[in-house]
Amino acid sequence: MTQNFQRARSSEAKEQREAAILEAARALAATHGVRQITLTDIADAIGMHKSALLRYFETREQIFLVLTAEGWREWSSALRNELSQLAEVSPAAVSAIFAKTLTARPMFCDLLAQAPLNLERNVSLDAVRAFKLVALNEVKVIGSEMKRLLGLSRQQATETIATATSMAGALWQMATPGPQVLALYRSEPELAHAIVDVEPRLAHILEALITGYLTDRTKR
């Protein structure tokens, strides 16, 4: 139910309102998927009129773009923590950790697919720039860890991370087609290949990519 939500009068109050908006969007997207959530849904969830919500964020796309940036930071930290604890380093081991940490974050995978499709397209250039700088910084620190572990060049590490995140987004979309389509896939044997098990598929792709980079290096 929409309430009379008074405008935040201090920077602290503004930050609290923004945090509440982001939390509501996060909870709704985790339950229903990013594409299904409207600005009105988010406003209703926190008892705020949509016009009042627009004082804090430009559009629904900006809200989810901020959540995508948060997802990059959180995933990057978890990924690097697990990579640092590897007892034996190999393309398979590194790829498995990439796949595991990404698939453990389904909403982040959803956001990774949505960001280039629409989240970056209905926001200001400042919002896009802020998001890109966060993502680029996390790519840089992950890349440094991959260079330390595997000896990949900056370009190879960047391409591996780009492949991991873009494929995670795409495969997640394929793996969650909706209940009616999923039932169709399961009922028709010739369509069974359309049911995607994301983690092993992603790990296999990344292992092949990293192995190729390392093989190419030894030939030089």
Report on the structure:
The structure is a single chain. The chain has about 220 residues and is mainly alpha-helical. It is built from 10 helices and no strands. Helix 7 crosses helix 8 (about 155-175). The mean pLDDT is about 90. It starts with 10 loop residues before the first helix and ends with a helix.
SSE map:
Blueprint: H1 11-32, H2 39-45, H3 50-53, H4 60-84, H5 91-103, H6 106-119, H7 125-150, H8 154-175, H9 179-187, H10 198-219
Q: What about the largest sheet? A: none
Strand content: under 5%
Radius of gyration from the alpha-carbon trace, in angstroms: 20 Å
Gap between N and C termini, in Å?
66 Å
| Structural class based on helices, strands and sheet pairing | mainly alpha
Low-confidence stretches: none
Helix and strand sequence? HHHHHHHHHH
Classify the helix fraction into a percent range. Answer: over 70%
Characteristics of this structure?
globular, 10 helices
What would you say about this model in short?
The chain is mainly alpha-helical.
